[in-house]
Amino acid sequence: MDEIAQKLIERYHQNALSSEENQEFxxxxxxxxxxxxxxxxxxxxxxxxxLQGEKELRRRLTVKGKELDAKVPNRSTAFxxxxxxxxxxxxxxxxxxxxxxxxxxxxxxxxxxxEKSLPLPPANPKPLDPIPSRPQAQTKPAxxxxxxxxxxxxxxxxxxxxxPSVRGSAAEKLSPQEYFQQxxxxxxxxxALSAFDSLSTFAQQDNTNxxxxxxCLLHARQGNAAATIxxxxxxxxxxxxxxxxxxxxxxxxxxxxxxxxxKKTLNEIVERKGLRLENAAQLYAALK
Length: 288
Known about the structure:
By secondary structure, the protein is mainly alpha-helical. About 60% of the residues lie in helices and about 0% in strands.
């Protein structure tokens, strides 16, 4: 493969193609099958490197945590403030959902996600179902409101690799691909959905663009359409964000009221020990 082709592939995966380079990239990928395969394999290699880096980071954090634990003589007097804040949130949510007359069952309320890419639930969370004003001799289990739980856990995916390298107006500087990703990065998800339709057929089939579109659809409360995209990505299996897909697929099921499907998907994340493991375990417990 010539040096120009290699440079185009590298700059494509860095989201750094200029308008002229993007035109040449589109011409090559539509006419040269070897070039198209090289684009795909380069993306898979980058994803493997990223996953290996995350695994190493988690290992180092575990070692560091053990070192810090060894230095704390009394955990009751040196309780980390982050865990204290999480405990306060969990206690507050438990007080909202408990029945004053019930002593035989412990209420289960959704715990707040802890990953940076997800928001904490509101400081004053509302219970999933209103507490009856009078105790009743026999009550049916409260139904799960998937939309409310979805709203507490969902935030469109973001990481530093998605930040556009070129900014400006679509008419002056940006290619359709760059404009779509800039709108997504700026949180203009409705406009990004419209911009997706202006992409080339090849770009609309790109797994990164499809993953971002699914997040836009979830933000627009179009869970069924988002689930269709994410299910297709799971079947393909090879994509830059394949490890993130099950979490957002579970959220799409929640948004559309498919609670059992959501539970099954979350349980698969827990058993596989995949990304979003802690979030999946908390949400699965809240749905049981």
